[in-house]
Amino acid sequence: MDHFLYRDGALYAEDVPVADIAAAVGTPFYVYSTATLLRHYQLFDEALEGTDHLVCYAMKAASNQAILRTLAQAGAGMDVVSVGEYLRARAAGVPGEKIVFSGVGKTAEEIRVALEGGIRQFNVESEPEMEAISAVAQALGKVAPITIRVNPDVDAKTHAKIATGKSENKFGIPIARASAVYAHAAALPGLEVVGIDVHIGSQLTDLAPFEAAYLKVADLTEKLRAEGHDIRRLDLGGGLGIPYTRSNEAPPLPLDYGALIKRTLGHLGCEIEIEPGRLIAGNAGLMVSKVIYVKSGEGRDFLILDGAMNDLIRPAMYDAHHDIVPVVEPEPGAEPQPYDIVGPVCETGDTFAKGRMMPPLAAGDLVAFRSAGAYGAVMSSEYNTRPLIPEILVNGDQFAVIRARPSFDEIINRDTIPSWL
Ligand SMILES: *Cc1c(COP(=O)(O)O)cnc(C)c1O
C-alpha cells in the first residue's frame, strides 16, 4: 500500500499533485512519500512487538538524509555497508549505537572511523576481516562488538544477482565452520562477540527460505552458547520482497514475517535486529518522467522518455518490471495500445518495457514509474553526461527538494585537465 493515488483524474503524491512537482522542478525526478515510508517502518516495528528489537533500515536502498531522518525520528536504526553510508547516517542525526555495519570488504580505515564515531556492531563476514577489526580496535584501545555473518546455504529463490545465502555466494562464513570461527573470534583481544548475523538475499517473495535460514540460526545459537559464547543478539538481515505489479503478486506481509521470527527464534531470548531496505523505501517512491517523442517503428511504437537507464537501472540490470502509469488518469474508454518504453541513452539496454499496454500517450505527457523508491536514485549515474535527477520528499500537502539537480557547470567542473594538456 502506498500514498500515490489518482484524485479527480490526476496522480497525487499524498496531497500534492505530481504534475505540480514536475512544473516546479522539471523532469525526470524521484518523489518519495513520508507517510508510506513511515507506514512501512511501522509495519516491521509492530510485527516484532513484544520482543526486544531494533529495525535497522538498510540505507543502501535509498540513502537521502531526509529519508534517513524521517525514519530515525520514528525510531529506526540503520544498516550501513560503507563508511560513506556511516557518515551519511551520522550527518542525518542517527546515533552510532543505532548503526550496524555490514559488507564483505570493510577496510581498516572504515573500521577506524566507525569505532571512533560509535557503532552498535560490525557484522563480520570473514576471518581476515575479524582480525582486522580486532587490530584496529586494539590500536584505539577499544573493544569492537561483532556478530559473525553465517551463510546458511539456503536458496532464496530470487534473482541471481541479489541472492546471497547460497554457499557459492561471497557472503558470510559457511555455517558448518561457525564453531571454529567463533572460537577464533573469542580469542581475539579487540572483539566482543555479541551474536549471529544472517542475510540471504533481496526481493524474497516467499517466507520458506527465511524459515529454513532462521531454523539453522536457532540451532547454531544453542550450539554456540553450549560452547561458551554469549549469543544475545540475532541480526536477521533484510530481503522481504515487495509487489512490483499491482495485479498478481502478493509477497508475504511484515506481520507474517514477524510471526515467523517469533516462532523460530523467540524462545532464545535474544534481542532481534532486522535490516529491511526495499520494503520500506520501494513502494514509497516514484520516478516521474516525460514523453519526449512518440516514434513509430516496424510494427511497434516507441515512447521515448527523458528518463533513462542511468536514472533507473533496475530494468537493464535485473530485468526488473516497474508498473508505469500516466500522471493524468486515462479516460475510462481509452483503448490501451502496446509501446516499447525507452530512454535516450545510446544502448539497446536502455529499455524500460517492451510491448507495454498503455493508454495512448503523446509528447509532453508525464508518466510515473511505480515502486522506484528502492535501488533507484542510489544506483543512478551521470552516464551520457545526464545530470543526477532530483529527489523530492512529500509530507502531506508539502513537498521539498531533498537533492537538487546539478547544473551542467557543476558536472563539467568536476573534471580536471592535467597541466601537460
Ligand atoms: C541489501 C541488504 C539488506 C537490505 O535488503 P532489502 O532486500 O533491501 O531488504 C539488508 N542487509 C544486508 C546485509 C544487505 O546487504
Structural class: alpha/beta
Overall average residue pLDDT: 96
Radius of gyration: 23 Å
Roughly how many Å apart are the termini?
Answer: 56 Å
Helix content: 25-40%
Bound molecules: pyridoxal-5'-phosphate
Q: What is the oligomeric state here? A: single chain
Identify low-pLDDT runs: none
Largest sheet: 9 strands, mixed
Figure out the total of helices: 12
Strand content: 15-25%
> Which word captures the global form?
globular
Protein name: Diaminopimelate decarboxylase
Cofactor: pyridoxal 5'-phosphate
Organism: Ruegeria marina
Keywords: Amino-acid biosynthesis, Decarboxylase, Lyase, Lysine biosynthesis, Pyridoxal phosphate
Could you describe the 3D structure shown?
This protein is an alpha/beta fold and 421 residues long. It has 2 domains: 4-31 and 282-412, Lyase, Ornithine Decarboxylase, Chain A, domain 1; 103-274, Alpha-Beta Barrel (TIM Barrel), CATH 3.20.20. It is 28% helix and 25% strand. The chain has helices spanning 18-25, 34-47, 65-73, 83-91, 108-117, 127-140, 178-187, 208-226, 254-265, 278-281, 314-318, 408-412; strands at residues 4-7, 10-13, 16-17, 29-33, 53-58, 77-80, 99-101, 121-124, 144-151, 173-174, 191-197, 233-235, 271-274, 285-296, 301-305, 324-326, 337-342, 351-358, 366-369, 391-395, 398-403. Strands 4, 14, 15, 16, 17, 18, 19, 20 and 21 form a 9-stranded mixed β-sheet that branches. It has an 8-stranded parallel barrel with strand order 5-6-7-8-9-11-12-13, surrounded by 5 helices. α9 links the parallel β12 (233-235) and β13 (271-274). It starts with a strand and ends in a 9-residue tail after the last helix. Pyridoxal-5'-phosphate (PLP) binds next to α10. Its cofactor is pyridoxal 5'-phosphate. Pfam families: Orn_Arg_deC_N, Orn_DAP_Arg_deC. Keywords: Amino-acid biosynthesis, Decarboxylase, Lyase, Lysine biosynthesis, Pyridoxal phosphate.
